[in-house]
Specification:
alpha+beta, 9-stranded mixed β-sheet, 6 helices, Fumarylacetoacetate hydrolase, domain 2, 5-stranded mixed β-sheet
């Protein structure tokens, strides 16, 4: 019997505790090859509820040796509501990132015809405060540089979303403070200005790239565009709060005990 492929091992590890170690030659050496591998195993994980974007900050792309940003689907089963206690089997790593989420108000079907920036912007109808919890099937994040992250579904973990807020001008997000607190104590403050073109800036390229890869984006799906506060590790059981001044809103969560 043939040994399980990398695709099969990644998919199996998604719902379990196995750590995946790629065999020699299994990981591609280009972002396009890594995306093809990602496309082979993501459909095995169930219905999509949104997308995460990664390497949307120039310094991060340089560190990961990636030529451009990447994205990965987030299954509905890995999206949690405000105040969630995220179980250990979902979050083996306990790092968090504060991010803006943008909700699609209408479908954008797959196609190779690029949509202009105005059309893309008009398709999104709400902004949500979000906490992303990156996760890897490998032994540690970024163990195999950028192409490893992309092949590993962009280090897909889970997402905690606050309430959607309509009527927000995305230009107003600018460098408005985004603050991460743990048990009421501020840990770090950042903003969406660190992303290419600001918090909403990476969306246009994502939409056209996703559609060209054969993905139909659906109304109600939420796209998170990158970390405003960097990756911060937090102990299990502590209350984590992300506050977004431009939204006058936030979102909270904690990691359930192991």
């Amino acid at each position: 019997m043939a040994a399980p492929s990398l695709v099969e091992r990644l998919a199996a590890a998604y719902g379990g505790r196995d750590v995946v170690t790629p065999r020699p030659g299994e990981l591609p050496d280009t972002i396009e090859g890594a995306e093809a591998l990602q496309d082979a195993w993501m459909p095995l994980l169930g219905a999509t509820g949104g997308y995460k974007l990664g390497a949307t900050i120039p310094a991060v792309r340089e560190a990961l040796n990636l030529p451009r940003a990447f994205f990965a689907p987030i299954p509905r089963a890995r999206i949690f509501p405000d105040g969630a206690s995220v179980p250990e089997f979902v979050a083996r790593q306990t790092g968090v990132e504060c991010e803006y989420g943008f909700r699609l108000g209408r479908d954008l079907p797959a196609g190779t015809d690029p949509l202009d920036e105005g059309t893309v912007r008009a398709a999104f109808d709400a902004v949500l405060p979000a906490i992303e919890i990156p996760g890897t099937r490998f032994s540690r994040l970024a163990e195999y540089a950028g192409v490893g992250i992309v092949a590993d579904a962009g280090a897909l973990g889970s997402l905690v979303l606050g309430a959607p807020i309509e009527g927000i001008d995305v230009e107003s997000l600018g460098d408005a403070p985004v603050t991460l607190s743990v048990d009421g104590e501020t840990v770090v403050t950042g903003s969406g200005a660190v992303m290419d073109g600001g918090a909403f800036g990476p969306i246009h390229a994502f939409v056209n790239r996703a559609r060209a890869r054969g993905l139909s984006l659906r109304a109600g799906e939420v796209v998170v565009t990158g970390s405003c506060t960097g990756y911060q590790v937090v102990e299990r059981g502590r209350e984590i709060a992300a506050s977004f001044a431009a939204l006058s809103a936030g979102v909270t969560m904690r990691f359930a005990p192991a």
